[in-house]
Amino acid sequence: CTGLRVTRGQARVRLNDGSDVCLRAGAVLDLTGFGCAMRRLRLVAGRMVAVVAQTAQRLPFLVETGWGTVR
Protein backbone atom coordinates (compact mmCIF):
# COMPACT_ATOMS: atom_id res chain seq x y z
CA CYS A 1 0.00 0.00 0.00
CA THR A 2 1.54 3.32 -1.03
CA GLY A 3 -1.36 5.61 -0.23
CA LEU A 4 -4.77 6.02 1.35
CA ARG A 5 -7.83 8.00 0.31
CA VAL A 6 -10.87 8.41 2.56
CA THR A 7 -13.96 9.26 0.52
CA ARG A 8 -16.48 9.46 3.39
CA GLY A 9 -16.61 9.09 7.13
CA GLN A 10 -13.38 8.39 8.97
CA ALA A 11 -10.65 5.78 8.82
CA ARG A 12 -8.18 4.60 11.45
CA VAL A 13 -5.03 2.88 10.24
CA ARG A 14 -2.27 1.19 12.21
CA LEU A 15 1.10 1.64 10.51
CA ASN A 16 3.79 -1.04 10.56
CA ASP A 17 5.68 0.75 13.37
CA GLY A 18 2.62 0.64 15.66
CA SER A 19 1.58 4.28 15.13
CA ASP A 20 -2.12 5.00 14.57
CA VAL A 21 -3.34 7.51 11.99
CA CYS A 22 -6.93 8.78 11.96
CA LEU A 23 -8.11 10.32 8.69
CA ARG A 24 -11.26 12.34 7.98
CA ALA A 25 -13.35 12.28 4.83
CA GLY A 26 -11.46 13.86 1.93
CA ALA A 27 -8.04 12.96 3.30
CA VAL A 28 -5.34 11.66 0.97
CA LEU A 29 -2.19 10.25 2.56
CA ASP A 30 0.96 9.22 0.68
CA LEU A 31 2.95 6.46 2.43
CA THR A 32 5.79 6.00 -0.06
CA GLY A 33 8.35 7.48 2.37
CA PHE A 34 7.31 5.29 5.30
CA GLY A 35 9.34 2.22 6.17
CA CYS A 36 11.97 0.66 8.41
CA ALA A 37 14.63 3.33 7.81
CA MET A 38 12.36 6.40 7.67
CA ARG A 39 8.97 7.43 9.08
CA ARG A 40 7.77 10.09 6.66
CA LEU A 41 4.16 10.63 5.55
CA ARG A 42 2.81 13.17 3.09
CA LEU A 43 -0.67 14.55 3.70
CA VAL A 44 -1.79 15.50 0.21
CA ALA A 45 -5.28 16.68 1.22
CA GLY A 46 -7.61 16.74 4.21
CA ARG A 47 -7.06 16.29 7.92
CA MET A 48 -5.36 13.68 10.06
CA VAL A 49 -4.34 12.95 13.63
CA ALA A 50 -1.40 10.67 14.45
CA VAL A 51 -0.69 8.82 17.69
CA VAL A 52 3.01 8.10 17.25
CA ALA A 53 4.60 4.94 18.62
CA GLN A 54 8.12 5.01 20.01
CA THR A 55 10.59 2.80 18.17
CA ALA A 56 13.81 1.20 19.36
CA GLN A 57 15.69 3.14 16.63
CA ARG A 58 14.07 6.41 17.83
CA LEU A 59 13.42 7.49 14.26
CA PRO A 60 11.65 10.84 13.87
CA PHE A 61 8.04 10.79 12.66
CA LEU A 62 7.58 13.40 9.91
CA VAL A 63 4.39 14.58 8.23
CA GLU A 64 4.79 16.73 5.13
CA THR A 65 1.93 19.05 4.18
CA GLY A 66 1.46 21.88 1.74
CA TRP A 67 2.29 24.27 4.60
CA GLY A 68 5.52 22.61 5.73
CA THR A 69 6.83 19.58 7.61
CA VAL A 70 5.76 18.64 11.13
CA ARG A 71 8.07 16.56 13.29
Can you walk me through this structure?
The protein is mainly β and 71 residues long. Helices cover 0% and strands 49% of the residues. The protein contains no helices and 8 strands. The strands form 2 sheets. A 5-stranded mixed sheet has the order 1-4-5-7-8, with no helix packed on it.
Would you spell out the secondary-structure blueprint of this structure?
Elements: E1 3-5, E2 10-14, E3 20-24, E4 28-30, E5 39-45, E6 48-51, E7 61-65, E8 68-70
Parallel strand pairs: 5-7
Antiparallel strand pairs: 1-4, 2-3, 3-6, 4-5, 7-8
Would you summarize the structure shown here?
With 71 residues, the protein is an all-beta fold.
Strand content: over 45%
C-alpha termini separation? 23 Å
Count of DSSP E strands? Answer: 8
* Bulk shape: globular
Helical run tally: 0
Largest sheet features: 5 strands, mixed
Lateral strand order in the biggest sheet: 1-4-5-7-8
In angstroms, what is the radius of gyration? 11 Å
What's the order of the H and E elements? EEEEEEEE
Helix and strand content put the structural class at mainly beta
What share of residues is helical? under 10%
Q: Can you tell me the residue ranges where pLDDT is under 50 for at least 5 consecutive residues? A: none
What do the pLDDT scores average to? 92
Task: For this entry, give a set of tags.
71 residues; mainly beta; 3-stranded antiparallel beta sheet; globular
